[in-house]
Amino acid sequence: MPLKSVYYRREVASVIEGAPSIRRYIAERGVGLVIIDSLGMARGGEPESADLTICTFAAFRSFGVPVLFVDHIAKHATDKSHSFGSVYTRNSARLMWRLDSDGETEGVAPKRLGLVNTKWNRRFQKPRGLLLTTETDEKDRLIAARFDDCEPPLATIRTASLRDAIAAVLRQNLAGLSLHDLRLVLEAEGVKVTENVLGATLGRKANKEIFEFRDRVWRTNALVNQLVVD
């Protein structure tokens, strides 16, 4: 995408107040996507307010184009699938992803990121991994950022499903693992699970295309391995 097709607009008023002006801006330039950073600033009031949140999303819909917004999770939240504030944020969004970082890697390149689908209206999407590489000049100013696909961090996968966490471990151990060794590897990665639960997950009929048991060890299905390699 050519850089000249990206427009930046600095806002002071809330999106509710600025909606008429923004709609004109969109129409005049033929804008196809609006990115809001961040929802809290665009809302212009308490994040817990249901009225403000509903009115904010009504303003988004009035733009007539898709809106991608960035929101935040409370630092000590136990449920990481919800952003901070009114439940109407989640209820109003069509699709939500949580972005995880693979540990404290400030200033280290490349950085591995994980995306977890936490809200979907049509179809659940599997966790994704992104490898972020940044380039700076001699004054440490950002001049380029590159995103490449990669394996999601295990910390991201384990919050999505136990099945995906098991598959990630087995893809890293293609020779296979016994149930006992698999449990130990998962526990070392912070996934606490009993061997009974592991056996039930691996042996579930719906997971037969993903896992197979051969020579007393569990492996990822050969077809899955072929797709990963290709």
Structural features, described:
This protein has 230 residues and is α+β, with helices and mostly antiparallel strands. It has three domains: 1-93, no CATH class; 98-158, no CATH class; 161-229, Orthogonal Bundle (Arc Repressor Mutant, subunit A). The protein has nine helices and eight strands. The strands form three sheets. The chain has a four-stranded antiparallel sheet with strand order 3-4-5-6, covered by helices on one side. The protein has a two-stranded parallel ribbon with strand order 1-2. Helix 1 (15-29) runs parallel beside helix 3 (50-62) and helix 5 (154-160) packs antiparallel against helix 6. The longest helix is centred in the first third of the chain and has 15 residues, at 15-29. It is elongated and about 65 Å long. The chain starts with 14 loop residues before the first helix and ends with a helix. Residues 224-230 have low confidence and may be disordered.
* Share of residues in strands: 15-25%
Report the order of strands and helices: HEHHEHEEEEHHHHEEH
How would the global form be characterised?
A: elongated
Ends distance: 28 Å
Q: Count the helices. How many?
A: 9
- Biggest sheet, in brief? 4 strands, antiparallel
| Rg from Cα | 22 Å
Q: Which structural class do the helices and strands define?
A: alpha+beta
Helix content: 25-40%
* Low-pLDDT ranges: 224-230
Q: Write down the domain tally.
A: 3
- Provide the spatial order of strands within the biggest beta sheet: 3-4-5-6
